Amino acid sequence: MTGIRMVPASPPSAAAQPGGGYLVRYRRDGYAVVRGVFGPNDIAQLKRAFERARAAALKLGRSWRHGNLCYRVVDDPAAGRIATMVQWPAYHDETLARYRTDPRVLALVEPLIGRDLKQIINQCHWKPPDAVAVDYNFHQDVRFRRPRAAFRNLETSYIQTAIAVDAHRRRNGAVRLVPGSHLKGEIALLGEGAVMGKGRGEGQLALAGLDPASIADMDMDPGDVALWGPFLVHGSGSNRGEDDRRVYLNSYVRAADCDRGEWAFRAGQPVALGAPQLVHYEELYTRPGPHYLESAPPPD
Ligand SMILES: O=C(O)CCC(=O)C(=O)O
User: Fold this and answer.
1) Residue 118 CA to ligand 1 centre (angstroms)
2) Is the CB of 238 under 6 A from ligand 1?
3) 236 Cβ below 6 A of ligand 1
């Protein structure tokens, strides 16, 4: 989709975009891409941080958890042993910690959800070239927001953000989505079955009353930031390109509307991570220590 390319070092603001720019698109389509939020120096730092996280994951060799920190390592039929995701790397990596509370991201989400924000998702995603076990079936993120009682007014209180670390195109497994699908509310059919895997592609959309012909690709260049809401129907395919496809995901929720998560901003000021708080890992307080996992954890 088209967007307004901004000077990389400037914090984007709603005012800087004629007619509300990305805010209008976000409300209308359920998602928006803002171009050039981060510059080449930011992306170089993020690439190095992703390399550190991947090296740590592959050194462990299997999926592994320590508190909220969790590495997802799989044996891909085509690409061999790969790290596909790390959840909450920011506890242990200063660079990733800094970008989770970057003022340029706050400037994007503040007009929608304010400046007192908790965070639910902090994830690095990798799709190495040729990897096939990295597909995300079409889904809505609302399915992961559990327990439901801990999240209120989800449609207006919660935003997922994704910083493109690499070019993000359909060929290398970009996110694909159905514009406007957020207006349909929660679609029960898309809450069933595994999110990661194959076989529930476009046919599933038709069964859910959505037109597969309306699917759009979330094309991004490094430094672009995508925002989407918890009801947007989206998924992504395999990487058939030559290069890695990495994105840094951070989701934010209006603190008054959520009983879980780590604080990210209080009155617009970044909040550093401390002792892990309850997010998704229900055994955080009963099994907080490091341990290998029997199988690769599903996304959340
Ligand atoms: O990284 C991707 O391709 C998909 C991410 C996604 O769908 C999600 O986090 O909900």
Assistant:
1) 20
2) no
3) yes
pLDDT tens-place string over residues 35-87: 999 999 999 999 999 999 999 999 999 999 999 999 999 999 999 999 999 99
pTM: 0.93
HSE-CB at 10 with a 13 A cutoff on CA atoms is 12
Which atom of ligand 1 is the closest one to the Cα of 234? 7
CA-to-CA dists, residue 157 to 69, 114, 241, 265, 272, angstroms: 24, 9, 36, 14, 21
Closest by CA to 213, choosing from 179, 172, 171, 165, is: 179
Q: Which residues contact 48 (CB under 8 A, 6 or more apart)?
A: 95
Instruction: Report the CATH fold assignment for 21-43+98-271.
Output: Jelly Rolls (2.60.120)
Rounded Cα distance, 159 and 155, in Å: 9
* CA 235 – ligand 1 centroid, Å: 6
Torsion of the alpha carbons at 80, 42, 261 and 292, rounded to the nearest 10: 20
Q: Whose CA is nearest to atom 7 of ligand 1?
A: 235
Instruction: Give the Å distance between the CA of 185 and the centre of ligand 1.
Output: 19
Comparing C-alpha atoms, which of 7, 72, 44, 26 is closest to residue 297? 72
Summarize pLDDT for 2-42 with one digit per residue, the tens: 333 433 444 444 444 544 599 999 999 999 999 999 999 99
For the Cβ of 145 lying below 6 angstroms from any atom of ligand 1, the answer is no
Query: Cα(161) to centroid of ligand 1, in Å?
Result: 10
**Distance from residue 137's CA to the centre of ligand 1 (Å):** 9
Q: Which residues are paired to 236 by β-bridges?
A: 136, 175
